[in-house]
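JOB MANIFEST
job_type = single_chain_structure
chain_count = 1
residues = 179
[input]
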Amino acid sequence: MTDFARIYGGSLYELAKEEGLDRRFLEELDVCVKVLRETPEYMRLLSTPALGREERRRAVDESFGPQLHPYLTGFMKLLVDRGEIGQFSGCVRAYRERYNQDNGILEVTATTAAPLSDAAREKLLSKLSRLFGKKILLTVKTDPAVLGGMRLECAGKRIDGTVRDRLDRIARGLRETVL
């Protein structure tokens, strides 16, 4: 995440918090990110200098105006005006980090070889919540390449208890021994 995204996303969060709109903005920002990811050509349109500033601002109004709080459409227009709309997802990430920090939320991604049962998911949530003392926002991904076990990623850290990781460590050890 760039300094620009951290500053602008953090400033947007401060405004939202001050106005009591922090949760609402988070939900609306998530919708915007999803739309922009699904339509990369729209992001290119908002980034192109060949299209006049007012036309790009109008495109934001037409696409998001009715669904978003006016502060958020204004924020998007500000990024368009500054030629920084490409920083939008980073700004949203910064916003989410500040929101999570203020609300005692920790985002955790668990990667397993097969989907977790509801009972296993609840057990993992409970254990993580006790361990970190925070509300856990859990995302579970499946990747057959891990073979078994689980990899957890949270707060920029990775805890890898997968079979794939163990096999890779054994292979590295063998290579180092042979060489």
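[summary]
The chain has two domains: 3-100, 104-178.
The mean pLDDT is 92.
exit_status = 0
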